[in-house]
Amino acid sequence: MLGAFVRAFRTPDLRNKLLFTLFILTIYRLGSVIPAPGVDSVAIKQCLQNVQSGDAAGVYSLINLFSGGALLQLAIFGLGIMPYITASIILNLLTVVIPRLETLKKEGQAGQTKITQYTRYLTLALAVLQSTSIIAMARTGQLFQGACPPSSYLPDDGIVTLVTMVFVMTAGTCVIMWFGELITERGVGNGMSLLIFTTIISAFPSGMMRIWTEQSQWVFAIICVAALFLIAGVVFIEQAQRRIPVQYAKRMVGRRMYGGSSTYIPLKVNQAGVIPVIFASSLLYLPTLVVGLMGPESTSPVVTFLNTYFDPMGTHPVYMTTFFALIVGFAFFYVAITFNPTEVADNMKKYGGFIPSIRPGRPTAEYLDFVLTRLTTPGALYLGLIALLPMVALGSSGASANFPFGGVSILIMVGVGLDTVKQIESHLQQRNYEGFLR
Q1: 342 alpha carbon, distance to own chain's centre
Q2: Looking at the domain assignment, is residue 375 inside a domain?
Q3: Cα angle value 403/406/408 (rounded, 5°)
């Protein structure tokens, strides 16, 4: 393994890509700790010490996760990559609904370029909306759940200062989006995924240190061993796939013979990835938003019900059950809109391909749909169980709010890590005929 790292840095082209990627990631992390104009950084740190960071981040867990904690620091990169992720998901869903977007998707590189441009515009609009909401919460004291007076960390809450903060945080999101595209084009791996990976990894040392100081050494050792088994299990499921064999018949085009080859369609067990968890988390943010708008101290039955069963920390069985059901439902929904068995069957029939013992056309589409449904069922259950891990740990121990292994974080870390290692391995095999992993 160490020899593979040495060979990676001895290859000039790959070394330049790795160093460029590390350089961009370093700048990104620096921007995550620089406060926006008008924010008292000393007071912000004091607020984070006075309030339980897990409780404060529970309401905004998804945004805070993808910002590496920069959200609660009101940093210039406080929104992180979340606006871009949301815009990408929305455009992906609209592709099925709007014929114009579906046509662009089928046009190849030119159509994909236009869809990317639309994603950038939507990211900008969402960044303005989210930065305005976060700064409004900070101004009213809701960002830290009333633990710190707003005047301490926002000494000047004039309109000019607030507009400047919105502009800076929105510009920070645009810079992050540019960083991701630069890494994808000139670095190693998918830029957006690596930025998310970096923000999640950055919270691990502090999380492990808190477990070390708050719990006994035996508990710390048990958590580390359990984390290794959990990571191994996630790697096993993420790599698992059903390979459906496809045979292409021979055909003459002019004077040349084409076809006659065998290949396969890889269908992953977790075909939806981490998207269903993001969908479910975003939807369950709505009860918290309703409570914030109506006031946490309100005596309304709606607020009482939401505070009781849909608390921000998600420890109530009703919240967990709803979260699990949403993840399973969204997993089937997302797979249904991203993988079209009828389209795959038509393309196979067009180029003379067929699945052995299955007739081309409609029978092939029905067979693919049957296999995909059976694969998605365990994949959806797996996603739900992984996402519930931190909630179960929090509800059972009460001191596991800083549990760093579980939910969205472990899925993203393993997935991005595997993809990046595969890209480095492909670069090494092209030049040295030896992969990254022997």
Answers
A1: 29
A2: yes
A3: 120
Within this chain, do residues 274 and 368 fall inside the same structural domain, yes or no? yes
Are 20 and 168 contained in the same domain? yes
What's the total number of domains in the chain?
2
Which residues is 354 bridged to in the sheet? Answer: 247
Q: Could you tell me if 153 and 138 are in contact, meaning their C-beta atoms sit under 8 angstroms apart?
A: yes
Residue 159 within a domain: yes
Distance CA 394, CA 400 (A): 5
- Residue 177's nearest CA partner among 117, 133, 132 is 117
What distance in Å separates the CA atoms of residue 24 and residue 9, rounded to the nearest whole number?
18
pLDDT (tens digit per residue) in 90-109: 887 788 778 888 888 777 77
Bridge partners (DSSP) listed for residue 268: 241
Q: Over the stretch 236-253, which tens digit does the pLDDT of each residue have?
A: 888 888 888 888 776 666
The owner of tokens 């593979």 is 4
Residue type, 15: R
Same-domain check for residues 244 and 186: no
Q: Tokens for 302, please give them.
A: 């709606």
Per the structure, the complete domain to which residue 327 belongs is given by 240-403
Cβ-in-10-Å burial (0-12, 13-18, 19+) of 308 comes to exposed
Q: pTM of the prediction?
A: 0.77
Q: Kindly state whether residues 14 and 77 are assigned to the same domain.
A: yes
Residues 56 and 174 in one domain: yes
As to burial, measured by CB atoms within 10 angstroms (0-12 exposed, 13-18 middle, 19+ buried), residue 94 is: middle
Whole-angstrom distance, CA of residue 405 vs CA of residue 386: 10
- The residue type found at 88 is S
Pair 66, 158 in one domain: yes
